[in-house]
Design a protein that fits this description.
alpha/beta, Rossmann fold, about 20% strand, binds D-aspartic acid
């Protein structure tokens, strides 16, 4: 009898030891973050330390970016991949499809806790929103860039990258959607925009507000987005090799219909009109937009102003014209949502639902 109880006690002790060791390993384990590099200023180099414009973007490789910030190794277990090496003004639909598929493949791996994407700042907000609509995971995906090249005095890339890795590895960032980490701030992909040509504080979410800060490497969240994203998305690009052509026509005083007609003639399946004010349609442009709609092109009324809701049936009778309104999305982001919407439907009723959902 005594022999049996000794064995039971030993077994219990062994189980307790293994459990404690497992808990310790889990809590001691650094988060596993994959860094996907695409180019941009964060990978840029200038001729001198004071060259903050007129430098060359997309020259430094992902391993060099990681090696330049050895502190990263203390906060995360890192892997790095060079997906592209481009200035982001050259980012295209084909790049987005490659990137999205790679992100989803990595996030499906149990040994990946989060992803950082280093990216040029010019179209960073667009890539972030595209991924916000097609990533099929609640794990953090963080986009980061810099406004000064790696060779510059007070280059902002290293601290931005350090912050982004901390954020991507943080449980607090899970389920928040695709995030942009720049200048110690956390922005949601849907509403952030690049607001200044050259300053380090260029990324702003002017009226709807950024959602948190990163201070001392730690993220602090103060709000959450209300629109659907990532794991709740209805869009799936896993089997797509091409996206429908959707373009943007910009309005201004004295504008005519040349751009609209040319874009439709080039094969646009959707057209975002970046209207003045509340998405107003200039009289010289309106007939061409109506003709495009009659040809089956889906028209989205957006506004060039940058903030506010484009009111349905406000500056135009959208019900009668069978147009869609962009809600608060910028023209460049409305283009992204319309592209993805057209991979699922041509129904303007359904597309308008999508613009009120994402
Ligand atoms: N040309 C810019 C780009 O690649 C450089 C940058 O700001 O990242 O977006």
């Amino acid at each position: 009898m005594f022999q049996k109880s000794r064995h039971a006690a030993a077994a219990l002790f062994a189980m307790l030891f293994l459990f404690t060791a497992a808990v310790h390993a889990q809590t001691a384990r650094l988060p596993r973050v994959s860094i996907l590099a695409t180019g941009g200023t964060i990978a840029g180099t200038g001729a001198t330390s004071t060259t903050t414009v007129g430098y060359t973007a997309a020259t430094v490789g992902v391993q060099a970016l990681i090696a330049a910030v050895p502190e990263i190794a203390k906060v995360a277990s890192i892997s790095g991949e060079q997906v592209f090496q481009i200035a982001s003004e050259n980012m295209g639909n084909e790049h987005w499809l490659v990137l999205a598929k790679r992100v989803n493949a990595l996030l499906a791996q149990p040994d990946v806790d989060g992803i950082v994407i280093t990216h040029g700042t010019d179209t960073l907000e667009e890539t972030a929103y595209f991924l916000n609509l097609v990533v099929k995971s609640r794990k953090p995906v963080v986009l980061v860039g810099s406004m000064r090249p790696s060779t510059a005095l007070s280059a902002d890339g290293p601290i931005n990258l350090y912050n982004a890795v901390n954020l991507a590895g943080s449980p607090a960032a899970v389920g928040k959607g695709v995030l942009v980490a720049m200048n110690d701030q956390i922005h949601a992909a849907r509403d952030v925009t690049k607001s200044n040509t050259t300053t380090a504080d260029t990324f702003r979410t002017t009226e709807l507000g950024m959602i948190g800060y990163i201070q001392g490497g730690k993220p602090y969240f103060y709000r959450e987005v209300t629109r659907k994203h990532t794991a709740d998305t209805e869009f799936d690009v896993s089997r797509l090799d091409v996206l429908p052509q959707v373009d943007v026509a910009y309005a201004y005083a004295n504008v005519g219909d040349v751009a609209v007609k040319a874009l439709v003639a080039s094969g646009a399946k959707g057209l975002v009109h970046a209207g003045v004010g509340n998405g107003s349609l200039p009289a010289k442009t309106r007939p061409a937009l109506i003709a495009a709609r009659e040809k089956g092109v889906v028209i989205v009324r957006a506004a060039r102003v940058g903030q506010g809701i484009v009111a349905r049936n406000g500056e135009a009778n959208d019900d009668q014209l069978d147009f869609v309104v962009a809600d608060t999305l910028s023209p460049q982001k409305a283009r992204i949502l319309l592209m993805l919407a057209l991979t699922r439907t041509s129904s303007t009723r359904e597309i308008q639902r999508m613009f009120h959902t994402y």
